[in-house]
Amino acid sequence: MASVDHLLQRKGAFRMALIPPEVLEALNEGLLETVNLNEFMALELPRLARSVAAQIGLDAASERLGDTFAMLAAFKPMQRHGHIARALYDLTAAHPERDAVAHRLATHPSDVARCWATQWIPMSGLSLAGQLKATRRFAADPHFGVREMAWMAVRDATISSLAEALERLQPWTADPDPNIRRFASELTRPRGVWCAQIERLKAEPWLALPLLEPLRSDPSRYVQNSVANWLNDASRTQPDWVEATCTRWLAESDSAETRYIARRASRTLLKRAPEAQ
Fold first, then answer.
1. Model confidence over 183-239: pLDDT tens digits?
2. Which of 249, 195, 254 is nearest to 227 (CA)?
3. Pick from 24, 54, 158, 259: CA 20 to 30 A from residue 248's CA?
């Protein structure tokens, strides 16, 4: 296929039907990243998976992949990606250059392929420390979708070893990369979206203060939104604590960044206020 460089700066179509055929072809060949949800949902997953398999050195015509494709329709869209990731992982198990295959997937031009690579992490049997180390490259990925899949990949391990996770993530809050700082916050949100809830932090959100305190006046809006959403999650179960924390932060750090976080964090509290009158 010809160069796709001229497609890299495109704006995504606002309907799937309007995605140019050239773009869709490149996406399904694994040559381009998606730029919006419409492109992501328009992918022909079996075709993309076979393209990626061949590109990273696996058998694109394997029976294992074929069996996976045959059952995809029975699952919700996001679950389909998990099954494809598992099939690719299984194919890699007996590969003589397993590490090289994994590296090619983790650095693939397709954001979806890199998302599949994040899903290999909980399959690996690594300790929490090992999983966090393996996830770091994806937490810093330039594509928003890969970054979201990164924290979801280690969510269950974090819940299982919460105290250890909170300790290991503390240095991440001081990282120069805002994507890494945001990861520490987003991974530990008490509720989150499309993921298991962290019941311990719903009941005792103050356990995560060592992560949140360094981020209370973070210069990145990306990080600010995550911290605010973290506190908003906590306000549903511990409203008094969230209100007290925001009040203290404003008293100790009356910056524009902290004011933004406190305001956004209080949106559920503000909705409840009229009900309490």
1. 999 999 999 777 899 999 999 999 999 999 999 999 999 999 999 999 999 999 999
2. 249
3. 158
Alpha helices in the chain (DSSP H): 21-28, 37-42, 45-56, 63-71, 77-93, 98-106, 111-120, 128-139, 144-153, 155-160, 162-169, 178-187, 199-203, 209-212, 221-235, 239-252, 256-265, 267-276
Q: pLDDT tens across 71-88, in order?
A: 999 999 889 999 999 999
pTM of the full structure: 0.92
Domains of the chain: 18-160 (no CATH), 164-187+200-277 (1.25.40.290)
Give the Cα separation of 172 and 250 in Å (integer). 24
- From residue 246, alpha-carbon distances to 45, 229, 232, 254 in Å are 45, 13, 11, 11
Q: Which residue has the tokens 């994806």?
A: 138
